[in-house]
Design brief:
The protein is an alpha/beta fold. It contains eight helices and eleven strands. Strand 1, helix 2 and strand 2 form a beta-alpha-beta unit. The N and C termini lie far apart (62 Å).
């Protein structure tokens, strides 16, 4: 009798778990995400080993919240257009202020942005962003919206020559060719470029940039809230930190103490 009751209980439990899994699959809502189109952070693919870091972190949070994301990888300017034309549910890597209809996440994307320059550069001992005055400076499109008041003073100084480019590969090459003095950009992207050239030891990153981070904008407030809750839980459990360290190792990138998805300081 006891054996029969135990067997019945186990069968009931099995079917309950099966039903939960089935419901989770059935009710996982498909969601479209406009995201970046540059490696190594954005590399949408059906193969897990080719997924960029931000897609991996975002998917982990969205999956936990009950959503199944599909990424549309486009330029930063196109991300905003896709969102404004209501072609996507989420806009990732939104630079500058957001004033439209939608709900920004508590969390932002924080690239490993640094002032990158050669070690023998006259600005190599800079301790503040304003110490870079007079340099030939380049950064990515929209950088002037992300790096704060002092960066604005720097790039508007008559002695500073500054421009922005949508192609970091091009400005990486300009730095190596000594056509610019300082590149304000992601150190890990530059690291991937310069290491195969055998020039890694020639360059250094200076942590003198105030980084506001790039926003994540949701069309639906409930989706935003569910995502934020999931990300908070996954940071508390250490899951997102483990995902980041694993991704860095798989991509042959240095182990850096940095949270790429975090709340604004």
């Amino acid at each position: 009798m006891i054996y029969h009751s135990l067997l019945v209980a186990l069968v009931i439990r099995f079917f309950c778990l099966l039903l939960l899994c089935f419901n989770a699959h059935v009710y996982a809502r498909d969601i479209k995400v406009a995201a970046g189109n540059f490696t190594p952070y954005f590399k949408a693919s059906s193969y897990q080993r080719h997924v960029g870091l931000y897609e991996q972190l975002l998917s982990a949070g969205l999956n936990r919240a009950g959503f199944s994301p599909t990424y549309i990888n486009v330029s930063n300017n196109a991300i905003k257009r896709y969102y404004e034309k209501q072609r996507v549910d989420i806009a990732v890597n939104w630079t500058g202020a957001f004033t439209g209809e939608g709900y920004p996440s508590q969390y932002r994307l924080f690239f490993y942005n640094r002032a990158i320059l050669s070690k023998d550069n006259r600005w190599a001992k800079a301790e503040h962003v304003l110490d870079l005055k007079g340099a030939r400076l380049a950064s990515f499109s929209g950088a002037s919206l992300n790096f704060g008041h002092d960066f604005q003073i720097l790039i508007n100084d008559i002695n500073t020559r500054y421009f922005e480019s949508g192609d970091q590969l091009a400005v990486n090459k300009m730095l190596v060719a000594n056509k610019i003095d300082v590149l304000v950009a992601d150190w890990l992207k530059f690291y991937r470029f310069v290491k195969p050239l055998g020039l890694l030891n020639k360059y250094m990153p200076l942590d003198v940039i105030t980084n506001a981070g790039s926003q994540i904008i949701f069309r639906d407030e409930k989706v935003r809230d569910a995502f934020d809750t999931a990300i908070t839980q996954m940071y508390v459990s250490g899951e997102l930190d483990k995902l980041t360290l694993t991704w860095l190792a798989k991509n042959n990138l240095p182990k850096v103490s940095h949270r790429f998805l975090a709340k604004r300081p």
